[in-house]
Amino acid sequence: MGRKIVLSADDIVFLSDLYQFIGAAIFDPALVKIVFSGRQKGQPLPWQRITIRPVWLRDRQHWQFSYFDGRQDFTKNYIETEIPARLDEIFALPFRNWMIRGVGEIIEARLSKRGQLLVSRRAEPTVIPNLAHDRAKKAILTEGVDIPYLRAIGIQTADGRVKVAMRDKFTQINAFLRLLADVTPDALGQGPIRAVDFGCGRAYLTFAAYHYWTELCGIETHLTGVDRRTDLVEQNSRIAAALGWEQLSFVQSSIQEYKSPLPPDIVIALHACDTATDDALAQGIRSGSRLILAAPCCHHDLQTRLAKLPPPGAFGAIWRDGLFFERLADVLTDTFRTLILRLLGYHVDVIEFVAPEHTLKNVLLRAVKTAEPGQPKAVRNYLELQDFWSVEPYLAQLLRGELAAIINKQP
């Protein structure tokens, strides 16, 4: 089962104590990962997040450092002797939040607004790998089986093995495909399917969806990946062409500016930052898409506007603690999105679609259009939440006309 990190977090009072703890914990066999995030007020920071985790490469222990700048990850692997120098570089950066995840536990530290270091340690359910044969049945893609597109996007080696550095991505792909299996083809018939993946990035999941629908389900699929970065669009287009996937295309565009030639049946937005998720949801809603899959990333818009308002009722205590306030804003943002979708006729499931040790961005909104817009309970739930917080979420601003038309019809 493994063991917990045996180092004591009780003596961490100053940043120097925390850095010393991290320097020892990184070599602990029970370590799952270490995450640095958040920026100290008024301090420039080149990275939104840095994640460190142990990996096994070329028959030797390494540590993978993943640097995320808000648009893409830069990943480097280091051996033990290289770690101290890399850590010193990170410790010199003005991060505000730290998380050390071990087997069955999480240790968190953050700097308060007054510069006080606050440390907590809590138990987490221990995930024990299940290697029984029924686990394999749940996986859409099977490790050890050569899948050409996985080789093309750098997940597999030539002999069908999953690369060590890409194991989390392989797990995420399988989790995503299981979600697709739950709703397609039943919700969409036998095709053809028209789908758009907004903010597709390197398109790991875009390629996975196309492979699943066309090659595993036999459904004619027209899928477009949309991203702002020209280099990624060109790279993804080359891979699709090399695979002979003529109905998979990539377009350089922002989400707001993209115009689909035909209304998409499916809209996907996985880890689009802040209000980009709302832009994608609005595109799907206005297109009448039958299925919308959105995994929100960072949340800033609602948080910024709530900070300018007096806290309602007894919520002042949450306003005083930045981390709690951020998490409350995150929950409220996604709750508003869920209620708006339900008000507009979608059945919405809120899902943890992959275990948090594989990605922190693991909440997914799965919306299937099943009813007429304007169900009284859905309207009432949305209006009650909006009235209580005295704020109009960004998605509601985008859909102001559509929402007003429905709400004004209510008795």
- The low-confidence runs, each spanning 5 or more residues with pLDDT under 50, are 126-137, 355-360
* The named CATH superfamily of the largest domain: Vaccinia Virus protein VP39
Q: How many structural domains can be distinguished in the coordinates?
A: 2
Portion in helices: 25-40%
User: H/E element string?
Assistant: HEEEEHEEEHHHEHEHEEHEHHHEEHHH
User: What is the top-level CATH class of the largest domain?
Assistant: Alpha Beta
| Tally of contiguous helical segments | 14
Name the overall outline. globular
Average predicted confidence as pLDDT: 84
Note the main sheet.
7 strands, antiparallel
The Rg value, from CA coordinates, equals 23 Å
Strand content: 15-25%
Instruction: Record the strand order, biggest sheet.
Output: 4-3-2-1-5-6-7
Main structural class: alpha/beta
The CATH level-2 architecture of the largest domain is identified as: 3-Layer(aba) Sandwich
Number of strands: 14
State the CATH topology of the largest domain.
Rossmann fold
Structural features, described:
Strands 4-3-2-1-5-6-7 form a 7-stranded antiparallel beta sheet, with helices on one face. The chain is globular. The longest helix is centred in the C-terminal third of the chain and has 22 residues. It is 36% helix and 24% strand. With 411 residues, it is α/β, with parallel strands linked by helices. The chain starts with 14 loop residues before the first helix and ends with a helix. α5 crosses α6 and α11 runs antiparallel to α12.
